[in-house]
Amino acid sequence: MEKTIANISKNTIQRSINPVYKTEDFVLYNDDCLEVMARLPNNYVDMIFADPPYNLSNDGITCHAGKMVKVNKGDWDKSQGFKKDLEFHETWIKEC
Ligand SMILES: C[S@@+](CC[C@H](N)C(=O)[O-])C[C@H]1O[C@@H](n2cnc3c(N)ncnc32)[C@H](O)[C@@H]1O
Q1: pTM (two decimals)
Q2: How far apart are CA 57 and CA 46, in angstroms?
């Protein structure tokens, strides 16, 4: 099924997402941002600062401190192909 915010809301009702830290005016989640944002009420967020995956970890190389190193940072940074990568980024940006 396509990963849209509407589908995520329908599919994740069974699973609870709990904050990892919470104060009177601050809540921290460590979970799938699409699933978390789908549950937040409208006008709930004051500011969004994002540092998303750039999908660059695909067995490429780069130059770090004068040395050739692998770019691979982890599975979370692997490209799923242009269409799926774009869909993910458009989905979270739209939800923001
Ligand atoms: C470019 S890194 C950000 C690193 C972070 N700024 C730091 O200094 O530790 C992107 C992060 O997004 C996380 N990530 C990937 N997909 C995600 C998703 N669907 N929801 C939430 N986080 C996600 C990855 O685990 C990774 O830690």
Answers
A1: 0.82
A2: 32
Which segments of 1-96 does DSSP mark as H helices, in order?
5-11, 33-39, 82-95
Cα(52) to ligand 1 centroid in Å equals 5
Tokens 């994002």 map to which residue?
50
Q: What is the pLDDT of residues 38-53, one digit of tens each?
A: 998 888 888 999 999 9
**What's the rounded Cα separation, in Å, for the pair 21 and 43?**
21
> How many residues in the chain?
96
Cβ 94 vs Cβ 5: under 8 Å? yes
Pocket probe for ligand 1: among 8, 12, 20, 33, the residue whose CB has the most ligand atoms within 8 Å is: 33
